[in-house]
Amino acid sequence: MTPLRPCLLVLLLMSLASGAQAQVTALCDARFPCTSNPSATAGVDSRVNLTWRGQARTSPRLSQSLVSNQGTFLLGDPVGGQRLGTSPTPLVQPIGPSTDDRGVEFRMTESLRVPAAISQQAARQGERQLFYVRQFGLEGSEPMTGVQVITLQQGVPGRGGAIPEGTEPSATGVTIQRVSLFFDRGSLTETLRPDETLQATARISYQGAGIVNAIWEVATPASTRGQPLYAPLSYVRQYLGAGRELTLTSPPLPSDTSGIHRVRLRFLPPTEIEGLPTLSYRISEGALQRDSRVPTIAIFPPESASPLSRETRFRWRPVAGSHAYQLEFYDRWPGAIGVEASSPGNSRHAQRQPATLDLAPITGQVVVGERTSTSPSSSLLSHLEADKRYYWRLIAIDAQGGIIAASPLEAILHAP
């Protein structure tokens, strides 16, 4: 056996001595408090952001890694309580050399998923809190245990957390009776600039109680010319109680691409529902062409025009370069923006029409593709009052979301 050289022997002894001295000396105590009052919803997959704080004594010459291999959920007692499950995600953080005897302070963050099965099991046993325990240690040292107390909130309508894609939904006794979809301004269609924000709202009528899984989805202009391809925007996992009606609001909708967008709320198994409504909105370049007129769309008198009903059919001649058409309804006669205002009598035979009016439509619907006729949807008609006169027009939209043609305003009576 070849003897070690003196210099190598000294380095080895220093390394062993350093390892022996390395130690976590404080964790989640009065001097280094951890997360303040974290909470999760019972029976719902919840995401809790935790902070671990403490102090470690390390080698004065070497950097080391602070490691926690996994976390454990315990019930009743953080030491010998009932084990409910684990979080297998390891936490690792480098710790620099100690510069004095006081050691090095550390701070680690953890985004913890509290599974619905674990919080529900605790709630069924009458517990109002969980203990989440982790052991932290440096290489070659004895670990120190840290404890976080997670308060359990009861699931009620209006509360709920996001669920990651692929999560198996819970069984539910909820029957969805009706879903109404509209934008936060109360309309069914919207036109906005890229710097404007917009959200969708779903009003859900239901019977029973349980957890419903759904997903907000958006189709961008890349696919709305043909078959829309929807991409996930936000997942929802919601407890429905005895309220019988619930309102959900989407996150801010994408507005960085000009053109036609579609948005929907799709329910996931076991609460799958066919034929749910969709909304359309348009992102326009150039501040909505506020100072211009556009060519007139040739429209034909609506079939069964009086009164307005589900059987009424609006027809028009196709417009070259159009990507979609939008039928708009106004509750009073709007004026033009940036051009001389017109009246019902003199706008009908004009060769050009204002692109933008000084009122927003109260409702409408988008017709995508090469169609040249449409009938009002039930959702559209539900936004109109009975025995009231409205004004409607049709606009043609190009692939960039700009208005390239518009029909004159026409009056029509809604008398269902």
From TrEMBL:
The alphabetized UniProt keywords are:
Signal
As given in the record, the signal peptide range reads: 1-22
Q: Tell me the domain of life.
A: Bacteria
Annotated protein name in UniProt: Uncharacterized protein
